[in-house]
Amino acid sequence: MLRLSVALCALLLCLACSEPPQKEIDRAQGAVDAARAAGAERYAVSEFTAATTALQQAHDAVGQSDYRTALSRAITAYERAQEAAKQAADGKARARSEAEGAVNAASTALHQLRTAIKSPDVQKKTQQLASARKLAGRVEASLQEARTHLAAERYLDASATLKDIVPQVNAQISELNESGTKPKPVRRR
């Protein structure tokens, strides 16, 4: 009786693996598509790549009539795609926060630069003033581009657009604030 039940289980297992696991592959494909829609290609790259690789391996295994491997790879692809979608949501929120912070920092720096440009002492420094105005124009254009990226939910692009803006503005403000002349020595009597 025991041998009969073991033989029956083995037969069922063989029959279960005699056809491609299309249901599982379709489910995995749906999960990969959902992860892609969630932004996993940009915000959860390694997990998304692992999911698409496992899905491709499932398709390859079906092509080789290795249905057990195909089933295993399809399940793995589904699980990795689910994880990629979760990571994408977290990564996207983090990227949004960073991009908004970069826009705020650049806006503040631009305001400080414009305030420095209006200083009466700076108005006498024509060469430095021209350079500062040129930088202010570039920063304004970069801010507009970054805001466009933010509106389109391209947070990584927004951050990249503003990379190194604040240090450039701070350096320009420091240059404007330097007098260019030596301080008058204090006379002792």
Overview of the molecule:
This protein is an all-alpha fold and 189 residues long. The protein has 2 domains: 19-90; 92-177. Helix content is 82%, strand content 0%. It contains 9 helices and no strands. The protein has helices at 2-16, 22-37, 40-43, 45-63, 67-117, 120-123, 126-151, 155-161, 165-177. Residues 4-12 and 180-186 have low confidence and may be disordered.
Features:
rod-shaped, single chain, about 190 residues, 2 domains, 9 helices
Number of strands: 0
Determine the strand fraction and express it as a percent band: under 5%
Total count of domains: 2
Q: What is the typical, i.e. mean, pLDDT?
A: 86
State the major sheet. none
Overall radius of gyration: 30 Å
Broad shape: rod-shaped
Brief digest:
With 189 residues, this protein is mainly alpha-helical.
SSE diagram, text form:
Layout: H1 2-16, H2 22-37, H3 40-43, H4 45-63, H5 67-117, H6 120-123, H7 126-151, H8 155-161, H9 165-177
Helix pairs in contact: 2-4, 2-5, 4-5, 5-7, 5-8, 5-9, 7-8, 7-9
